TrEMBL record:
The chain crosses the membrane at residues 20-38, 44-69, 101-126, 132-159, 171-197, 245-266. Pfam families: ABC2_membrane_2 (PF12679). It comes from the Bacteria. It comes from Paenibacillus woosongensis. GO terms for molecular function: ABC-type transporter activity. GO terms for cellular component: plasma membrane. This is ABC transporter permease subunit. Keywords: Membrane, Transmembrane, Transmembrane helix.
Length: 273
């Protein structure tokens, strides 16, 4: 536990000194205020064309930001020789990985919280209408994207030898999970027998953190009817009293499995020197 906390503190210090972090902080703050301007003439409540557009815009920015900062953190350890030095100390691989994850989570969630906090302050000062439940769901949506994609980012950083590889893999993952997901989904499902479509759709949704979080928030906002009959069961279980807890459990399992894979990659590399 002590080792993990030390790694997390070190990562927070490095993250808060990272020019990339402040660049994304400014970008996300401007982005958040822009969302407020979109809302300036309307009351944002529930799922609508405005909230759908806002979710899409957040979906474009946050995963890419998280993939860059997370993957560069691990590849930086390799390029600068920090990991070779740390591996000579009695520091376990798992405390190192979890410490990295916790430290980066604090940095990224600070960026997100600052952006939403600024948006909330300006909204109150300007007297703009923004329903609290919708506001909190947008915040939960952003935090969920950050935490899930950070696990993916650390996996990319573990597999990459340098920052250029991490950059390439990050853009590729971002493109397939965010930009090209609908086209890929239609192409794959169109080749399958009808009876296979629903189970394959569910499996693919669980593999895509962006789609997983998006579906949950859209349904919570009351937009489940726009998803189609294939997602009827999703709407049912998410609206159940324990639906949010079950979704949180799925996300924690997703992160846990990812960290286990990262641990295996680093431990294998450590044993080989």
């Amino acid at each position: 536990m002590t080792d993990m906390l030390q790694v997390a503190k070190r990562e927070i210090k490095i993250g808060l000194r990272n020019p990339w972090a402040y660049s994304f902080l400014i970008l996300f703050s401007v982005f958040s205020v822009s969302l407020l301007l979109v809302n300036s003439q309307n009351t944002v409540s529930g799922y609508s064309a405005i909230t759908g557009s806002m979710l899409s815009l957040i979906l474009y920015l946050l995963p890419l930001m998280t993939l860059f900062l997370g993957s560069f953190s691990l590849t930086g350890e390799k390029e600068e020789g920090s990991w070779q030095l740390l591996s000579t100390y009695p520091l376990g691989t798992m405390p190192f990985i979890i410490g990295k994850y916790v430290g980066l989570s604090v940095v990224l969630l600070t960026i997100v919280s600052f952006g939403y906090g600024l948006m909330g302050i300006i909204s109150v000062a300007a007297g703009k209408s923004f329903e609290l439940t919708t506001y909190l769901l947008f915040l939960a949506f952003s935090c969920g994207l950050v935490l899930l994609f950070l696990a993916v980012a650390l996996l990319i950083g573990s597999l990459s030898k340098n920052r250029w590889q991490a950059l390439t893999f990050s853009v590729m993952i971002w493109f397939f999970t965010v930009i090209g997901w609908t086209t890929i989904l239609i192409s794959v499902l169109g080749l399958l027998p009808y009876l296979w479509i629903k189970p394959v759709l569910i499996a693919l949704t669980f593999l895509n953190p962006a789609e997983l979080v998006r579906l949950f928030v859209v349904i919570k906002l009351g937009g489940g009817s726009v998803l189609g009959p294939e997602y009827y069961e999703w709407v049912t279980w998410i609206h159940q009293p324990g639906g949010s807890l079950l979704f949180l459990t799925v996300c924690l399992a997703w992160i846990g499995i990812s960290i286990a894979g990262i641990y295996w990659i680093w431990e294998r590399g450590r044993s080989r020197g």
